[in-house]
Structure formats: C-alpha cells, structure tokens
Amino acid sequence: MKFFSVTSAEELAEKGYTVEIRDDELLADLGYKPELKRNFSTTQTFGIAFSIMGLLPSIASTLAFSLPAGPVGMVWGWFCASCCIMCVGLSMAELGSALPTSGGLYWWTYKFSPEKIRKPACFLAGYANTLGLLGGLVSIDYGFALMVLSVAVIGSDGTFEYNSYDVYGVFAGCIITHAIVGSLATKHMAKIQTACIVANIGVILITVIALPIGASSKRNNAAFIFGKLDNLSSWPKGWVFMLSWLSPIWTIGAFDSCVHMAEEASNAAVAVPLGIISSIGMCGILGFICLIVISATITPELSSVINTSFGQPMAQIYYDALGKKWTIAMMVMLLSIQWFMGLSIIVASSRQTWAFSRDGALPFSRLLKVVNYKLGVPVRAVCFNAICGVILGCLCLIDTTAANALFSLASASNSLAWLLPIAMKLLFGQKSFEPGPFYMGPIFTKVIPGFACVYLCFVIVLLMFPIEGPSVTPQNMNYTVVINSAVWLGALLYYFFDARKWFEGPQTTLTTEEIDAVLSPSLEYVDEAFPKKE
Fold it and tell me: Which GO terms describe its biological process (predicted)?
C-alpha cells in the first residue's frame, strides 16, 4: 500500500483552508477520497460514543453480572475496570489522532504489522471488529426488549407473562426501526447525538437524586457500600469479583465508535481522541457515582433482586425505593435512551462494514461499499447490519444463558480488534509511528499500551467463562467461546484458503488525477480536488 505526503494542516490554515479541507487532505494521505459528509462536531463525535454507552440503561442491562459479588463488585469492580479501559482508550486515541479513518482498527493493524503477517492480522482485526460491533447492536436491542417487557410486567402487577418469542419479537422490531432511522442523512444523526448527551445526563441526575429520597428510611451504610463482598455464585469469591467487571467492560465498550465516525467528523485528528477519552472518563466517573447510589439504596437481600419476577434487577431496585408509578416512569426513560443507544451503534457498525467493504474484505463488498451520496450514508451497510443482527438475535430463542452470551460476544470480539493494532504499534511500529495532535510522549506511549495489551488478553479470557461454574454443562455454558472462535478461526481459514489470493489490505480509492492534485505544490490543483467551502 502506498502512502502519500500532503500539505500540512498548518500550511493549509495559513492559506485560508477550512478544517474540512485539512481533514480531507489527511484522509487522502491515508489513500482515501472523502465519500461521507463531515457533519459531526467534536461534541457530537463524543456524543455517539457516550450515547452507545448509554450509562444508566447499560448498567441496568448488565447489573446481573455484578450483583453476585455484592456492593464491592458493583462499586470497586466498576472502578478497577474503568481505569484499565482508560488505558486502552488512551492507546487508541493516540492512533486515532495520527491516522483518522473509519476502518481504523484493521487499517492500523496493517500499517504496523510485519510484512509477513500484516494481511492476515488486518483481515482478522477487521472481522473481529465487525462482529464486535454487530454483537453490540444485538446485545443493546436485546436489553431494550427486556426493559419493554419488564415495564409490561410491572404495569400489570405481575399478571403479564412473556416468553422468549415475545422477547425476540420486540428485539427484531427494534432493530428494524434502527435500520430505518439509521439511514437518515448524517446531519440529522449528528443532531440526535447532542440530544442523547442531554438525555443521558438528565436520567442520571434524576436517578441519583430520586433513589436516596425514596429509600431515605432504609439506606445502607458505608461499610455495606464499599466493603460488602458477597458470593451469590458457585465460583470462588475472588473470581466472582472479577466477573463483576463484565458490567463496565460491556458498558464502557463503545469508544471505538469515535474511530468509525472519523470520516464524518470535523477536525477528526482532534475530535476522535477527545471523543474516546472524554466518553470513557465521563462514563467511568458517573457510573461510579451511580453504583454508589444504587448500592446505598438496594435491599441487602441481593438474591431477591437477582431473581426478581420483573426480569430486570434495576426495575426491582426502582420499585423497592420509588413504588410502581415512578418505576414505570424511570424504566420508560431508560428504555427510550436504550433505543437511541441501538440507533447510534448501528450507525457506527455500518461505517465499519462500509470501510471494510471498501477494501474488499467482506462478502458482497461491491454492494456494501456503495454510499448514497444524496444522504451521505452507506444505506446498504446499515441494512446489512440490521439483517445480520436479526439473525444473530435468534440466540435469545434458545435460553437465557445463550442470550446473555450476546453481551460478552460483543466485548470479546472488540477486545481482540483493539488488541491487534495496539500490540502491533507497540512491538513493531515505534519507529514508523508519526503522532498526531494527541500524543502521550516517548515513555507513556510504550507503558500505557503495554498495560492495555496485558489487560485485553485477560479480558478476552474472562469473557469466555460461564457466569455459573466451575462445572460447565450445556445449560450454563458461555456461547461466546463458540461464536467468537468460529468467526475468528473462520476468518483466518477464509484468508488462507481463498482471500490471500486477492486481499491486499487497505486500498487507495483515489484516482491518478486526485493523487496528482494532492501531491501538487500548486494550491490550484488542491482546490480542484477538494474545493473550499463558500
């Protein structure tokens, strides 16, 4: 793959070029011409990650993973995992600032890997990231379906009962609506992200104020909140605490969406790293506060919350503190935000699908790489993700254990996709790496990614464990290990038996004339390739 030298951002700024022109110049340096519209500001780039994280709805969806370890698992498990995730985010932010492209993870893997392994490593990273984002979509919408049905149970005073087919029906309907709205022009999607930021913070404030007021006569003390380690599982107590990390790992796991929006972000070299770091930081801090409040107001009999008839532990916590009407109101707010989480991630996942198809790696790439230029959206990639999501969601028809694998499925594949470029840059790319506006310095650019790699290796193993153990049966096994292993191994087999004959890694989409315009010292040619804004 050939890389192109371009006029620097500073030189273009001196000559009166807009931020968008500098973005397009940098993209051309990576070998691509601009095909998407840059309608996302730095705040909105942060917003798409923060929206997908959907802090409180995500905590509600994954609380069952941390409850078996008690308040210590909820509070300190969140804190420890958040710090580790920030190291991954910092490592990715540095790469995203230097090389902002929608296909970032597999593109970076290709650039920094040794010649002999760069193509298969790139291929694996791309497929892992595609599956991870798809798993994120499916798990978010599965959580949405459970919330909707839990509201129905609460509203009927427990007389309404639902089965797996009801869950799947709500889930599939949710994905279809996401595909429709996710195909809107990017200018509308950008505005939605701003609204999502406000809505997320609003529901957090309501919760941290309302829960202590509602449970004023029965709040737990500090010793319970910060020091009570339970073991409501068959695993050893120490491992139950580690499994409580699954909640923050899944919740704060969408920061790479900023990378996938790089070709729609204005001033991408700054917007992408800021979006990654600020979304992780804000979710980490606000989540820590939320879980302290939840631990302070939850009933000490945690088994009653885990086994609630509502099918949703957070609904039971609201119900115990606030009563029926307020619980329904709070759950409606949470599921509304959860719907927008799914909308945001189908946007991000479709950009990964589009970028990977642009480089010819996915089946039906010729169809999936097409952009609707009127909308500035890869509509076919959006629909492809929706169809795959509906198929993958059939796991929830098997049983609850299989459905829970949807959460770890997303995190495991994304962890591998994050690990590969960070490790390749750390091991083989130190000399060739040219930092962008965000740079950690000569020492921390090695130390932090090194720790991030160790952490991600541990997380991949952690996510393969069943929630109930150590005796594994077909009923309690974790389907994550089956699905992820099949996709990862399948991707490598596909590469070595077929794709190696034609897959060349990231490909330039610039024509000869556009390359000449980029390389020309004359601004007349640059203006011809990428005209100024009026």
Answer: amino acid transport
